[in-house]
Amino acid sequence: MEPIEVKPPSRRDRTPSAPILLRRLAQADSELEVPIDVEVVTPPPADAPEGFRERLALALGTTDARLLDAAERGYKGTWPTVQAYLLERLALTMGPNFAEALAGREPDALLRTYCGDERLVWSIAVSDHQVMVFELPRESTRAAAIAARLYPDDPDLLV
Questions:
Q1: What is the pLDDT of residues 108-126, one digit of tens each?
Q2: What does pTM read for this prediction?
Q3: Mean per-residue pLDDT for 74-82?
């Protein structure tokens, strides 16, 4: 029996080592660079519920930063209902007796009494028992744009 001569595989037939493969992969990835715009934003209000900005963007149906920023500045907090917020505000401005007298009114009428032509008030549900309430002056151009998004059929409608 003759001895069998074993030759090492040629250099081209060998599998490259892991560092060489990683280097080749990294080179291919550099061709796929995508510019990313980074925007630094302030944190949401301290008492804002989780997902505050996402809920706001969904409710308004926009990602326009100026419009969302204006709406965020109008954030007043969370209440069980919009009516609870309105009664609290009316009690502060007109006295508790007047607010109690208005408590029996229909929610739409109560909202119109509080808002008049001066304010835009709207809410976004957080849960079955809590809403985020927003209030902006009606004279603001951002308030008009928000009203048009919230009430596309009738921008003057406050409810």
A1: 888 888 888 889 999 999 9
A2: 0.69
A3: 94
Residue 45 neighbours by CB under 8 Å, 6+ apart: 52, 72, 75
The distance of Cα 95 from the centroid of its chain, to the nearest Å, equals 35
What stretches of the chain adopt beta strand conformation (E)? 75-79, 119-127, 130-137
Q: How far is CA 124 from the centre of its chain?
A: 11
85-110 per-position pLDDT tens digit: 998 888 888 887 877 787 788 888 88
Phi, psi of 127 (to 5 degrees): -150, -170
Torsion of CA 46, 77, 115, 141, to 10 degrees: 30
Q: Residue 49 in contact with residue 78, Cβ under 8 Å?
A: yes
Question: Kind and range of the H or E element at 100?
Answer: helix 96-102
What residues contact residue 124 under an 8 Å CB cut-off, 6+ apart?
A: 55, 56, 59, 131, 132, 134
Paired tokens of 110: 């109560």
